[in-house]
Amino acid sequence: MRTKEVGRPLDRVDGRLKVTGQARYTAEFPVEQVAYGVLVRSTIARGRILAYGTKAAEQTPGVLAVLTHENAPKRHPTKEFDPSDKEPSASPTTILVLNTDEVSWHGQPLVVVIAETLDQAEEAASLVRITYAPAEELAKLSMLDQKTEAFVPKKVLNEKPEVTQGNAEEALAAAPVKIDHTYTTPPYNHNPIEAHNTLAYWEGDDQLTVYDSTQYIFGVRKMLSEMFALKEENVRVVSAFVGGAFGSKGRAWPHVGLTAMAAKVVGRPVKIDLPRKDMFYMVGGRTPSEQRVALGADAEGKLQAVVHTGLTASSTSNTFAEHFSFVTRHLYASPNFLIQQKLVRLDMVPNTFMRAPGEGIGTFALESAMDELAYALNMDPIELRLRNEPEKDPTMHVPFSSRHLKECFALGAEKFGWHQRNPQPRGRREGPWLIGQGTASAFYPANKRSAEVKVKLSIDGTALLQSATHEMGTGTATVQAQNAADQLGLSVEKVRFEYGDSLLPKANGSYGSTTTITVGGAVELACEDLKRQLLRLAVKHPSSVLHEANYDDLEARDNGLFYKDNPTRGETYAVILAREGKENLEAQASFPPFLKEKLEEMAYSFQSFGAQFCEVRVHEETGEVLVSRWVGVYDCGTILNDKTARSQFLGSVTMGIGMALWEETHWDLRDGRIPNASLSEYHVPVAAGLPRIEVYSLGIPDPHTPLGAHGAGEIAVTGAAAAIANAVYHATGKRIRDLPITPDKLL
Amino acid sequence: MSFSIDQILRGDIPRVERPPAADPSLVPVRLRVNGQDHDLQLEPRVSLLDALREFIGLTGTKKGCNQGACGACTVLVEGERVNSCLTFAIMHQGKDITTIEGLGTPDALHPLQAAFIEHDGYQCGYCTPGQICSAVAMLKEVEHGDASHVTSDLMATDVQLTDEEIRERMSGNVCRCGAYLGIVDSIRAVYEQQKGQ
Ligand code: FES
Ligand code: FES
Fold it and tell me: What residue stretch is flagged as signal peptide (chain A) (predicted)?
């Protein structure tokens, strides 16, 4: 029997191109006559534009056009991304910048300068002057100051903003042991190293081609077709190599539409590659949050009341309420729940998904609170979690499709050596360093979206797989080739996977850790269809050894279909196709197959779990925190490729450490300026200061998902910040409930 | 100028030099990149990074921040690592410039390129050319006995390349995908390999 491809730690199929600099990212296509666009940002948060001083810019050598709302062509409004749409637009907002004189946030693009070279465009942009009429009322920039205006939004993603079960406040008051605290998290920015960028050109008036660094090709296509009143099929969006995304590239920020507009005006290809500073002002980040978590338990540590309420911010130009409370709906059992989300709207750039949206910040609050409760109970924090394992989903009241949180803690505790830990805070020191250890649960949903896949098998024994999904470093290109290879009984070298182009079969955006299951399910279905077609061809012929075969008797193996119980009896695809005089055969399928999926979706709660363990060293005199050890164990079903999945976990933990200790986007609350809008002042993790992170996955298949898999790109962000905060408490006796845990908070 | 997805995913996109503009204010600049001379007409303010990417068409060198904070633009000038966004092209005439394309090709990988694939020292691949160029020069610095911030014995001529040393010395190269462990392991593997020889 040949070994399976799925599960092998195969090298990335796009690796050679990436390490040799031959992979072309969006801004790198050699399109003739390309001109460069540079955007000018608003320097007020709210008001109107009175006048533009563009003369100096227009007279700069090389300048082709200077566009403002006064001379920019009108575009059509687009719908804001709405998760309840079947195929949502990628537009983050309904505002059409440059088609309005209204300023809605500091940093809103107001002017596009297009020139022959980048330096010319940058120089000209620096010469533009804008006069404003700032709004009479003060801009709303502080979430906490706007608390009185907070409202309960209609929906939080596709769920209810509130869940009440029993009477949580009463149960809390009556509980013998309880904690009740407020946790806050700051704004964060994704900062993929490849900036957002777009290259666009027109052929005639109605054919638009856009190279765009996106994780949602069809959403970009939809937005552009609405904006320019084009047929969707007349817009081609290409996004093959993407230099990191982490959620930010799930939306088409204003520069996307502006690049297409600029290309139309100058009649040439135009590219706009956002400078890093614009990445903070024109690309939304993670909302700040303020969350209350109150937990009441009986003396044995059984939760009697769980309260998780709080506040996030969206902008005046979008409506996304980040779902911090979702984790609490599924993680622990309790008879009484009070969950509620509120929203305020600020004059800031629209917020958006950032790696592990909702759960990233929600687990910080909930899992810090669980640690506080464990101390209040004088109980081991793992024990506390185990005592509150629910039999069913505690708010959906259906079974979990697969849940192995206990096993995650068991393995993690063993690898980490948790049980040697003295629970007493401030119990260990080495010179000036206080040493502490902390743990937290990780949690992220295992959702699915939709995708179509086409597979074409050729007589030479190769297969071509096509789907307009995305590869942002996630490993999709590699793991789906492995998947198809197994489905068809080919070796993986014989499978080519084409993705990243709207000319291919439709796929949903690659976010929310949904791609592996979604595309994986579609691959499975398309391959099945293909194999059934092949069998039908063979069955017709009395001379075929498959003449009497049923589909279920066979398996795909060694480039053909063979009897399961007689591995030498069967036919290769080449034989089947040759007999028909066919060069190749195609099949196409969509996932999810609708009805079946709907029923499954309602019957189970689909979630991934994990256990995070870390050790920190806190310098007593400087307050510096270093993470010195990390063990993470994750339960996300079958692992398709150990190498790429491991990198997803490592990268997520790394981002979680950044979130806990270093990252924060500062907002100047007077005018919405972002004083640290650069990579030198917004500190993302670097190699120094990180430990040798250890990650493990249980690899237990989910019986209710394609391949038994779950997505693996976000789970390991969740719980990370809480594990660190819990370890910092253990080291120092100080509980930090406000991220990031910077030295000033510890001194 | 339309590229098929097949072409794109095979890496089959030609390198195209930008045709010189007929602008008398431009100055001739000759750059020797990967052993090949390129005669350009540039404004003196054009960075080495933009000259490589936008004029010569060597797009393997990446732009991440354009201000010296990320290392994505790292190239080798006379064998030393340089953030090409922080320096003008015109300053590097007559010098040997090596970019990622000059280190190896998909069919003939540099040992570090091969190690990055094996140890998954990347995810999206965007910081990768800079990481690899930086690592090539860093290993030379180590061979040369250069100390770093974490070297305990500044007088020793022979640096012990611990994980901590690699991490410190590679911290000018940001990887937002967080592939640092793979990066450290790739570099260590090549270092051991070279030491063994
Ligand atoms: S682009 Fe040069 S250091 Fe970031
Ligand atoms: S591999 Fe994506 S930034 Fe390093």
Answer: none
Give CA–CA dist A278/A37, Å, rounded: 13
- Give the neighbor-by-neighbor strand order of the sheet with A554-557: A554-557, A560-563, A566-572
Residue A2 has pLDDT above 60, yes or no: no
A615 assigned to active site: no
pLDDT for the residue A597 = 63
Pick the CATH number of A15-20+449-591 from 3.40.50.11930, 3.30.530.20, 3.30.365.10, 3.40.640.10: 3.30.365.10
Ligand 2 pocket, residue B125 CB under 6 Å: yes
Residue ranges of domains in chain B, CATH in brackets:
26-103 (3.10.20.30), 111-196 (1.10.150.120)
Give domain limits for chain A: 15-20+449-591, 31-136+190-282, 149-188+286-447+603-745
Scan for tokens 């005089």, then name that residue.
A581
**What's the confidence (pLDDT) of residue A248?**
97
CB atoms under 10 Å from CB of B149, counted, come to 9
Give A440-455 pLDDT, tens digit per residue: 999 999 998 899 999 9
CA-nearest of A27, A476, A119, A500 to B60 is A27
- Closest CB to A193 among B117, B176, B181: B176
pLDDT tens digits for A578-629? 999 999 999 999 998 766 666 777 899 999 999 999 999 999 999 999 999 9
pLDDT for the residue A1: 38
Strand A429-430 and strand A433-445: the pairing is antiparallel
Confidence of residue A3 (pLDDT cuts 50, 70, 90): low
CB contact under 8 A, B180 and A654: yes
CATH architecture label of A31-136+190-282: 2-Layer Sandwich (3.30)
**Helix, coil or strand: residue A212:** strand
- pLDDT bin (cut points 50, 70, 90) of residue A489 is very high
Cβ contacts (< 8 Å) between A643 and chain B: which residues?
120
> Mean per-residue pLDDT for A473-487?
96
pTM: 0.97
Q: Which residues from chain B sit within 8 angstroms of residue A38, using beta carbons?
A: none
Alpha-carbon span A414 to B175, nearest angstrom: 30
- Find out whether A622 and A562 touch, Cβ atoms under 8 Å: no
Closest atom, ligand 1, to C-alpha of B62:
1
Element (H, E) at A596: helix A594-603
Q: Is the dihedral of CA B186, B187, B192, B194 positive or negative?
A: positive
Which CATH fold would you assign to the domain A149-188+286-447+603-745? Aldehyde Oxidoreductase; domain 4 (3.30.365)
d(C-alpha B56, C-alpha B66), whole Å: 18
| Structure confidence by residue, pLDDT tens digits, A654-711 | 999 999 999 999 999 999 999 999 999 999 999 999 999 999 999 999 999 999 999 9
Which residues, in sequence order, are CB contacts of A616 under 8 Å at separation 6+?
Answer: A435, A436, A437, A438, A625, A626, A627, A628, A724, A727, A728, A731
Cα of B173 from ligand 1 centre, angstroms: 9
Q: Which residue has the higher pLDDT, B22 or A359?
A: A359
Question: Which residues, given as ranges, of chain B have pLDDT below 50?
Answer: none
Please tell me whether residue A538 adopts helix, strand or coil conformation.
helix
Which one-letter DSSP state was computed for residue A45?
Answer: S
